Amino acid sequence: MKNCIAILVISVVILSFHSCKKKSSPPTIVPPASKLMLSTIQLNSNGWGTTLYGINRQPVIRMRFSGPVKQSTVATALKLSDGTNPAVALSISYESKDSVVVAQPVAALAGLTQYFFTIDPSLQSAAGTDFVSSVDQRFITQIDSSRKFPAITDDELLTKVQQQTFKYFWDFAHPVSGLARERNTSGDVVTSGGSGFGVMALVAGVNRNFITRAQGLARMQTIIAFLKTNAQKFHGAFPHWLNGASGTAVAFSTKDNGADLVETSFLMMGLLTARQYFNTADAAEVNLRNDITALYNGVEWSWFRKNNEQVLYWHWSSNYNWEMNLPIRGWNECLITYVLAASSPTYGIPKSVYTGGWAANGTNGFVNGSSYYNIQLPLGISHGGPLFFSHYSFLGINPNGLSDAYANYEVQTRNHSRINYQHSVVNPNNHYGYSDSVWGLTASDIPGGYTASSPTNDVSVIAPTAALSSMPFTPTESMKALKFFYYVLGDKLWKEYGFVDAFSLKQLWFANSFLAIDQGPIIVMIENHRSGLLWNLFTSCPEVKAGMLSLGFTAPYL
Question: Distance between CA atoms of 293 and 340, rounded to whole angstroms?
Fold first, then answer.
């Protein structure tokens, strides 16, 4: 009996054991939490895929993540900075059960500044998983429209711009030669053409009482003595660059190490203008005038026809001869070269060289006649090219009422400037910052280089000299640009020698350079707009009158 009971108990235990084992379930496997990812990011409710421009100074950044974030990791992971100063303090809030994070600067950001927004890997999800997206966004804040300098009258502003820019040619002139340095980093390298512009600026400076007549005369004596005695010349013509201490030619390029006839013409335009200004019977002024006349008469303009061709050539070198092989043909900045060549009493050229060489007998390429932005352009390339085409020659040549067989030059210069202006108003390339107050495309420095900007070569870089040197042609539009450059952008553009060479609001780049060929036309053309001084002086030269008449020009002053 006992044995039966024992067997029964053992059987129950075994059954119970097997019964429990049969009912047990496998262990639960918990999947790892998903990595945290950024789903969308917006700046002021706008999609933020590329750099955004003109952003207000307290923008809202809205980020939607793939799941809730761990709030304790957010403040250190989100960073907003301009790249130089400490990170900007952010106000942070949460929505949608912590899966949406909203950040906003606590204080207003700086105007016209590029900011970088990043989220670093220290951000975690609420479950403690890592953040795996890559976030490196950029935006540029809107222009700070506050006035950077006290308001003054328009006339006072024009004087201030002339006087500040004048310092480039007075304070920064080469200490030995008195000539203009090519740019503010050129050391001993001076520029013959830029020095011609500088001489015209010197005359304007004396006339505006920036310096005395005696000071201006003394500087001119230094310049002329250097050009007579020290400066290297080639058939009477000067090189593009000179060493301002020794006078030896400095190569502009390998084969451009000799005469540059165009740069020589810019220099002579300035010297003849000064000759007409220093016109008293004082012995020093008489000697100065005689020396300038001798320098002008010494330029062998006709020799630069090469083999008596019906065109002038730009370069000649004593060791490369005519290998540069660049004929001077229009339409561009070189009208003054043909005018001075035709005006020379010693080495003059006939009208046939002007007609066949410069004007190409009025064929296409010289004559235009098409309209751009509903503005007709008499001469030149599409849209007129860079604005220096309408500046350099017309620092001395007065285009008002001036005509020849090919164009009315008052219309040419005015419409070229209007087309350039209208290009920035229409802004077909959608460059940030262009407007009726930010315009002007011409040759200038650009980020990493130099280019001749124009409506057909628009790299988003504005050069103040372009709009300001068009003051006689587009006075309303140029004055509006001047006020914007000075009052609104002045903290970035207005420096020791006037306005810096160029800037780009799109690239947020501001040059730290000044160039003689850009600073000079600002002073001269503002003066021509105000008084016509340089126009009146240059066109009063008897040689110039005779030369322009010989080429078929008509004007009230001829």
Answer: 12
Q: Distance between CA 89 and CA 318 in Å, rounded?
A: 66
The token duo for 282 is 């004082």
Kindly give, in sequence order, each residue whose CB lies less than 8 Å from that of residue 230, ignoring residues fewer than 6 positions away.
177, 246, 247
pLDDT per residue, tens digit, the chain (558 aa), is 444 334 333 343 333 434 444 445 556 555 566 899 999 999 999 999 999 999 999 999 999 999 999 999 999 999 999 999 999 999 999 999 999 999 999 999 999 999 999 999 999 999 999 999 889 999 999 999 999 999 999 999 999 999 999 999 999 999 999 999 999 999 999 999 999 999 999 999 999 999 999 999 999 999 999 999 999 999 999 999 999 999 999 999 999 999 999 999 999 999 999 999 999 999 999 999 999 999 999 999 999 999 999 999 999 999 999 999 999 999 999 999 999 999 999 999 999 999 999 999 999 889 999 999 999 999 999 999 999 999 999 999 999 999 999 999 999 999 999 999 999 999 999 999 999 999 999 999 999 999 999 999 999 999 999 999 999 999 999 999 999 999 999 999 999 999 999 999 999 999 999 999 999 999 999 999 999 999 999 999 999 999 999 999 999 999
Please tell me the distance from the alpha carbon of residue 349 to that of residue 342, in angstroms, as a whole number. Answer: 5
Q: Residue holding tokens 């012995």?
A: 283
Residues 6+ apart with CB under 8 A from 53: 139, 140, 432, 433, 506
Distance CA 244, CA 249 (A): 9
Place of tokens 């019977």: 281
Residue 451, classified by CB atoms within 10 Å of its CB into exposed (0-12), middle (13-18) or buried (19+), is middle
278-281 long-range contacts (CB < 8 A, ≥24 apart) are 278/216, 278/217, 278/220
Q: Given 3-state DSSP classes, what are the helix, strand and coil percentages for the chain, each rounded to the nearest 5?
A: 40, 20, 45
Q: Which amino acid is at 207?
A: N
Residue 104: both structure tokens together: 């906003």
What backbone torsions phi and psi does residue 322 show, to the nearest 5 degrees?
Answer: -95, 20
Domains in the chain, start-ordered, CATH in brackets?
A: 38-141 (2.60.40.1220), 154-550 (1.50.10.140)
Can you tell me the distance from the alpha carbon of 194 to that of 262, in angstroms, rounded to the nearest whole number? Answer: 11
The whole model's pTM is what?
Answer: 0.92
Terminal-residue alpha carbon distance, the chain:
151
Which tokens belong to 288?
Answer: 């100065």
Q: Rounded to an integer, what distance in angstroms lies between the CA atom of residue 396 and that of residue 416?
A: 18
Cα torsion angle, 251, 256, 262, 268, sign: positive
Give the span between the Cα atoms of 264 and 340, in whole angstroms. 10
Q: How many CA atoms lie within 13 A of 479 on its CB side?
A: 14
Whole-number CA gyration radius for the chain: 35
Residue 138, helix vs strand vs coil? strand
Rounded distance between C-alpha atoms, residue 62 and residue 45, angstroms: 8
- Residue 373 CB neighbour total at 10 angstroms: 16
Phi/psi-derived region of residue 120, left when phi > 0, alpha when psi is between -120 and 50, beta in every other case: beta
β partners of residue 452? 443
